[in-house]
Design goal:
This protein is 49% helix and 11% strand. The radius of gyration is 33 Å and the shape is globular. Among the domains are: 188 residues, Ribonuclease H-like superfamily/Ribonuclease H (Nucleotidyltransferase, domain 5, 2-Layer Sandwich), CATH 3.30.420.10; 113 residues, Up-down Bundle (Taq DNA Polymerase, Chain T, domain 4), CATH 1.20.1060.10; 142 residues, Orthogonal Bundle (DNA polymerase, domain 1). α19 packs parallel to α22. The chain has 952 residues and is of the alpha/beta class.
Amino acid sequence: MDPQAELRAPAIEDGLEVGEQPEEILKKIAHPLHPSAASAPGVGGSPIDSAAVTEAPRLLLIDGPYLAYRAYFAMPGLTDAQGRPSGALFGFLQSLLKVLAEQPAEYVAVAWDPARTFRHDLSAEYKATREKMDQDLLAQLSWMVEAVQLLGIASLERDGYEADDLMASLATQAARQGVESVLVAADKDLAQVVSERVTLAPPSKSGEAKTPLRPREVEEKFGVPPERMVDWQALVGDSSDNIRGIPGVGPKRATDLLKKYGDLETVLARGPQEEKGKVAEALGLHAAAARRARALVALRTDLALGPVDSLRRRPVDAGRMREFCRAHGFETLLERFSQDATEGVAAASDRDYRLVDSAAKLAQLRRGLEQSGGFTVDTETTGLDPLRARPVGVSFSWQEGVAWYVPLNLDPPLRGPQGEDPVVYLAPVLADARVPKRGQNAKYDMHVLERAGAPACGYDFDTMLAHFLVEPTAPHNLDNLAARYLGLRKIATEELIGRGKNQVTMDMVPVADVARYACEDADVTNRLIAPLREQLRACASEALFREVELPLVPVLQRMEAAGVRVDRERLAALERRLSARQAELENAIFAQAGRPFNLNSPKQLGPILFEKLKIQELAGVRRLARTESGYRTDAETLEQYRGVPIVDALLEYRQISKLRGTYVEALPAYIHPVTGCIHTSFHQTVASTGRLSSADPNLQNIPIRSELGREIRRAFVPHLPGWHMVSADYSQIELRLAAHLAAEPALIQAFRDGADIHRRTAALVFKVPEAEVTPAMRARAKTINFGVLYGMGPNRLSRELGISFAEAKAFIERYFQTLPMVRAWLDQTLEEARRTGEVRTILGRRRPVPELQSNDGRVRAQAENVAVNTPLQGSAADLIKVAMIRVDARLRREQLAARMLLQVHDELVFDCPPEELERLEALAREEMEGVWQLSVPIRVDVGHGPDWASAH
């Protein structure tokens, strides 16, 4: 862990080769899939614009302090024009560029040390002999971090943990995900985590490469395998970190002892009796020191540092890097970055991006689209809401490197051959489903084009959706996909419109700049299709994409366009009632507390509840939950104190406050000024389970079981007077899926009998006839039926049911004894997930769960819940998506006026005229219940009424 120990070298041994210039190093960073990038920057991007990636997933982790110290001692005394020290920075940058050239990787991070770590708390002697960092080096560290950022690389630092801990944790976790890691460091501590997928690669010295350390090389060098390195280090100690091992035990003796006894504890247990002389005596006298040394040298491998994908190499910010080099006087690097910047995306010398600014060009474009065999289309607008933003232009591409941009804000306006609006002129080919359309987030473009008078039909690819199925937990934006699959740095939106208070809208940007940006979007989207098709095939997700996710896009687009009407007056009346009730609760709380205080301040609330009123004594709670700053007063904690008047009032006050702010007060602002409806956005690429999510506003979290939630739903009404709201809700779909997937005979029979599943479960578990099942028995069965499927253990069950831990544990055991196939399915699902690193739904949707291999028990437990939850929740999501596609097709085929408006997890919401009511209810039930053949019947509860609450 000592970056100084081996660093006092006369030259940058891991830096430039003799006579090698920085420009030559930079050329090595070219994207490996585009070897001609330097000579054809317009296609592949220049080397400095590309994030170096390899064909197999690879993570490059670099010890930042090591490179920094090494550079500092190699180039002392160098300053820039302002007199600031710069030698370490220059040497660090040279070394980093060389590493990047020698070790191309898709994921890259530089790890840094904090000022103090947990090891200092374990031992006051830890690194006590270390000299403080020189001020000249300290002054340059922030610039090094800045340079790393500009090169598109993540910087990692965690309070309490050294760079080695971060590297060890990431490499270990990446290996479990099938990602190979290369650790660029000289610290032998990292040999602890070397494996078949983790290589320790010390930087080269004086042009002579060092041998990378893999498991065999570690054993050859130290005499023990990687998994015994921590024991070896504990015996030997580490003088550079002031860690004392066993006196008289050097490297060779430590190797011999471990080969003889196996591990440190056995050495310490048997060594004093079986060894001879001073070694035996030292092992007996210094066993505690060896154990303390082991705790100090052992690297952490369980730190939660986020997904590996967050370390994906980003494109170099060439412009800012040029400014950085100029500021520090690095002329040779400045020249190289300047050259790359002019050769990059901005020049695009071999790209054919065409601005359509005449009727003749517009006619030429339409002929090209008609003969293209399929094309990508992308729209530019003034905002993110496609139903409110103004269209600015449309771009098209069907040939690599060639794209067309049709501006809609020219002055005078662009017109077609007969004076038509340009989008209307293109409408026939956009509406022709025989000519496939492709896009990135196609639903947005469909909205924009429809509002412009040219509905687009026949989409056969959406790059965002495809990538979601391939890598569900990764970012799906076009910039990320371009860097990930094409090695390109796209023009950032902020480069055109700015950010923050200086941001403008796209219609205020010069048309030529928008044209270049829009054409690139269409071109890049077109180029992404081939690699993403291959990725879909590779992960067996092509059918799910083609048959479910893509056909769902126009369904959701129609639902969003229809919107749902909200009764403003009803919301206003509800707001008045809630405001009055909240005032009553506030007064009641203050009266019980004996004084007014800030209800939203845990620091004020905690002492009142637990010190003044002592609610823990009233509720019989023995252990108080605390935070660093005081008592915990969150809702989950306060639920333990239900029945205490002030707590009941607090919880109701908070519920009202949340629902007022989230819905009652907020919903009117979302009402469209023209349609009078709320047009929520449904997202397919947010929830890793495959569930749809809703935003702007989120209508999926309105409580249904509380009266307040039902009051909010009563404000959602049909579009027209006299029409009905209709709700079609799957009945216990996840329990039915559990019975099917587990093949549990008792549950299958209960569903086939149409029995009350919770009453039947209670009868089975308590071994009584169903007629004798009490409400309390049924309540327990209901809780465990749902809870056990999502990892509920005896602790939580005891809290939920208000019973002892022992009772809860016994109840769970009885449950699994009664329904053994459920236990078997849970175990099998977890075993398969641990083996493959992923879980799949009934339609084959995959969700990676690498956290199952975490050393952190809490992280692992959460991952186990995810692994069990996803096949159920994800399968339910799959089925309702298929049902939505079928219901929508029937509505259009049968030309009904009824419209599907909302999807809320297992529920579909419609409105319809009274004469279509019976037909709609039958249609919805038929399509939803017949969506898939399970071993149990699928049931749908259908209701109707004048508002959403009445229909459910």
